[in-house]
Design a protein that fits this description.
The complex is a heterodimer of chains A (484) and B (105). The longest helix of chain A is centred in the first third of the chain and has 30 residues. Chain A folds into 3 domains: 88 residues; 198 residues, no CATH class; 176 residues, Rossmann fold (3-Layer(aba) Sandwich), CATH 3.40.50. By secondary structure, chain A is of the alpha/beta class. Chain A has a 6-stranded parallel sheet. In chain A, helix 4 runs parallel beside helix 8 and helix 5 runs antiparallel to helix 8. Chain A is elongated and about 80 Å long. With 105 residues, chain B is mainly α. Chain B has a domain of 46 residues. In chain B, 68% of the residues lie in helices and 0% in strands. Chain B starts with a helix and ends in an 18-residue tail after the last helix. Classes of the chains: A alpha/beta (484), B mainly alpha (105). Chains A and B meet through helix 1, helix 2, helix 3, helix 4 and helix 8 of A and helix 1, helix 2, helix 3 and helix 4 of B.
Chain lengths: 484, 105
């Protein structure tokens, strides 16, 4: 086959891969087709990578028309090591720790995009080809990739508990963030003007790019540190979108269509997803990024001091209440996942259903550590997803519910979000658990939830507290219901 | 601006618009898998990493390319595997014994 025909075929294959990404992503909009959508997208990826290998073998690099001697050892070794690490960690990770892993994958993706842009710039400067457009794309790719890398690493640290989930604000941290942004912008201006030919950088292009990279890496850190752990999903989604744009910039630098399309696709859809997640928490993205949420704000602890009374209940009482109820709604939270109690809760639910109790699960959009995280955790325990009801669907049912069983969920049930304008979570849509005829909360202690706010639900007269580890408490309940 | 650059920017812009439209009405259930799925797609940087590996002739460039390929491969493989793991859990419950085949007590 003559080279130009092969080149055309390769281009079409890239477009096919890009189309598969679009179709795959679209099918992930619905539960029924989501898995197939992911496989279609994976097929697109396989085609794109295979075609690139064909390009390098038969035509060489599109830029130089040849392939350097060490190219294949680098590609094969890197793919084996990186792919192996990715495969192993993805198979091994517990589903509770999955948000951290997604964040790590986002970090390395951003890092790779930044490195591509850096390497291409070094080559272009060496050849004297770093014009104004190349400089713009390179700098954008490098900045976005570096921020995504360091920001995602910090987000992982926060989710994993290696770094405090509380907002970390040191004196002058905002000034440092602004100073870093100014440094990066100044460097960018220098490189772009240099590319335009307006100023002579005298061979300092690479050191300036190095300064920009360092400033962007530090910016990613100072950007994420002041944000509370509860907001990490929004941050990860935003950084994910940033990595997509960085990939698109790398594509513009390399003039590769599939990189441009896939990167732009992720950049835009990631931005929409970020907005959806933020609005599920009734917060704007800006509000999240300004940070400080979940810290020791004034209203924290206000409810505890109001002389409320905590009513403690025993396992047997709760078992009777549940077994003779007509309708029970289970409200699972992250505490359930941490205690690995998904299977115990399903067992309890099946037992109650066998007795004719109508059981549903109320899933808050941000239950768990990420929107949709709780659905994944429960699905893993074979809870049929038809029983998982979203907030808008389940809220009108609480007044008709005999028992709302809250397991390890806290902030998403806090009535203060409706009633107390002083509360940091005021305005966040919550599950109206307090409208149920009676409420049972399984919780280890009165410790406040992830956002660090006391929950006045626990002090209401209709609320009974069952102090236990989620899994232990549920197993005891299962045993108690069995003998009834 | 060269014609190639113009068409590349056009592609970029159209792809951004597609990205805005492609995930409009997603149930919250799927937010996490969708984020993970989008995360795997930007693993496309593996293609870019392979292309810079092909031209890397200096040791510095080769090291950068090696790190880029490793990172990108981890993003791609791990991203798709973990997304599939999440999604394979969204199964319908087997219909609990069809009428007439009642085998449960």
């Amino acid at each position: 086959m003559d080279p130009s025909t092969l080149g055309t075929l390769i281009h079409f294959a890239y477009v096919l891969a890009a189309a598969l990404f679009v179709v795959g992503l679209h099918q992930m909009n619905s539960v029924l087709t989501a898995r197939r959508g992911n496989l279609i997208s994976a097929l697109g990826m396989a085609i794109a990578v295979a075609v690139t290998a064909v390009q390098l073998i038969f035509l060489g690099s599109p830029a130089t028309g040849q392939t350097e001697g060490l190219a294949w050892p680098i590609i094969v070794a890197g793919t084996l090591v990186g792919g192996g690490l990715g495969w192993y960690s993805a198979r091994q990770v517990r589903m509770t720790a999955m948000p951290q892993l997604v964040s790590i994958f986002n970090a390395v993706g951003g890092g790779a995009a930044g490195l591509i842009a850096t390497e291409d710039y070094i080559t272009a400067v060496g050849r004297g080809e770093a014009d104004v457009w190349l400089s713009i794309f390179v700098v954008l790719g490098v900045v976005l990739g570096s921020i995504a890398f360091s920001g995602s690493v910090i987000a992982t640290g926060k989710l994993q508990g290696l770094i405090s989930g509380q907002p970390i604000i040191f004196p002058g941290s905002r000034l440092v963030t602004i100073a870093l942004a100014v440094i990066a912008l100044g460097g960018t201006a220098a490189l772009v003007l240099g590319g335009y030919g307006a100023v002579d950088l005298g061979g300092l292009e690479i050191p300036i790019l190095g300064v920009i990279i360092l400033a962007a890496l530090a910016f990613g850190i100072t950007m994420v540190l002041p944000i509370g752990g509860a907001d990490m999903p929004v941050v990860i989604s935003l950084l994910n979108s940033g990595t997509g744009l960085a990939a698109a910039m790398a594509g513009l630098v390399l003039n590769n269509p599939v990189l441009i399309i896939a990167g732009a696709l992720v950049g835009a859809s990631g931005a929409i997803l970020t907005k959806l997640m933020a609005s599920a928490m009734n917060r704007s993205v800006i509000n999240v990024m300004v940070g400080g949420f979940g810290g020791g704000e004034a209203a924290v602890g206000a409810a505890a001091g109001e002389g409320g009374h905590v009513r403690e209940v025993g396992v047997d009482d709760v078992a009777i209440q549940l077994a003779y109820a007509q309708k029970v709604i289970i409200v699972p939270g992250y505490g359930l996942a941490v205690a690995q109690a998904q299977h115990a809760v399903r067992e309890l639910a099946e037992l109650l259903e066998a007795r004719g109790v109508d059981v549903d699960y109320a899933i808050h959009p941000v239950a768990g550590r990420m929107p949709g995280h709780m659905n994944v955790l429960l699905a893993e325990a074979n809870v049929p997803y038809q029983q998982l009801k979203e907030m808008d669907e389940i809220n009108p049912e609480f007044p008709r519910t005999d028992v709302a069983l809250v397991i390890g969920a806290n902030d998403v049930t806090n009535p203060a979000a409706r009633s107390n304008p002083q509360s940091p979570i005021y305005g966040m849509p919550i599950l109206d658990v307090d409208h149920a005829k009676s409420i049972v909360v399984i919780k280890r202690s009165m410790r406040p939830g992830y956002a660090g706010i006391d929950n006045e639900l626990y002090l209401q007269p209709r609320t009974g507290m069952l102090f236990a580890d989620a899994r232990e408490g549920l197993s005891q309940l299962v045993a108690a219901v069995k003998v009834l | 601006m060269s014609p190639e650059l113009l068409s590349a920017l056009t592609i970029f812009l159209l792809a951004v618009l597609v990205g805005f439209e492609v995930i409009s009405k997603v149930p919250a259930t799927l937010h996490t898998p969708l984020m993970s799925g989008a995360n795997s797609i930007h693993g496309i940087v593996l293609v870019g990493s392979m292309l810079i590996a092909a031209t890397a002739s200096e040791p510095v460039s080769q090291v950068l390319a090696l790190v880029a390929v490793t990172f990108a491969a981890m993003n791609v493989v791990g991203g798709y595997v973990v997304t599939d793991r999440m999604l394979q859990m969204f199964k319908r419950r087997q219909p609990p014994a069809s009428p007439g085949a009642g085998d449960q007590g």
